[in-house]
Amino acid sequence: MKIVLAVVVCLVVCAVVIAQQTTTETPKPEPQMMCPMHDAHMKMNERSEKGMGFSQTSTTHHFFLRANGGVIQVEANDPGDASSRNSIRMHLGHIAQAFQKGDFDIPMFVHDTVPPGVPEMKELQNDIRYSFEETASGGRVVISSSNKKALRAIHQFLRFQIAEHKTGDPIEVR
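Request: output the structure for the sequence above.
Response:
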């Protein structure tokens, strides 16, 4: 009788352990636990959508450092998303014109700070050229200069954008 009772207890314990393992989910961490800057990134994305006029989740930003300046590129994630593509093109065309005039209000609004390099880019606006180009799914702003001080400022600005937008783009000049 003791053996039967021991077997029954063992079976019950095993059944309870198995049931717990199959029904208990691993708790998912709160967003703040995943990334200490989660709230700040969410607020930046909200400001980005207001300042840029298109979804940050259905588009992808890239920032490239070049020997003669750099590139700001934004693409719609879905090549068939004409609305995002057109909004990107309108925004980047506006950005190229605004930056050429020394107006960096939108990046200052989006990031809630003056990005590194902006004071120098404003000061040296006549030594920097900004041009807009369309791409298949969006567009790009090409930034160029032959002024070494301007190039340092452009690269500071683009590195800041890479870090803030978490693009994973290279931070070295290519």
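The radius of gyration is 25 Å.
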